[in-house]
Write a structure and sequence with these properties.
This protein has 127 residues and is mainly beta. The protein contains two helices and seven strands.
Length: 127
Amino acid sequence: MVVLKLGDEWELVDSWEGFDCQHIPSGMRVEIKQSAAEQSWPRESVKPSALRFQIKPRARGSTDIYIYAGHGGEGESADHHNSDQWRFFVAAEADLPKKESIGLNRLRERVGCPCTITRLCLKTPYS
């Protein structure tokens, strides 16, 4: 969903890389993380999960930008396939604390308000 929105100059990379997609002209690397309140697997609790993102990079220096995708929908109306139900936070590694994970409120404090898929864009050296 994210790579399609970013456009033709972006490509998915091998899953073993330290990042998920790359801007072809500039080489900018992006890692995409997601978290959702409703999960598709059975859980002990029926209570929705709090949105939390892993922020520890797979390999230091391998990623330029992180996109954190959060889906807060719950119950019958929650549809992970509906891109309008996701919210996206864009952050540089320097904007994140040196921790394993970060919650939604702390992420907002660090990088500001999220955007919708229609407003998602990344500045590249060629922008």
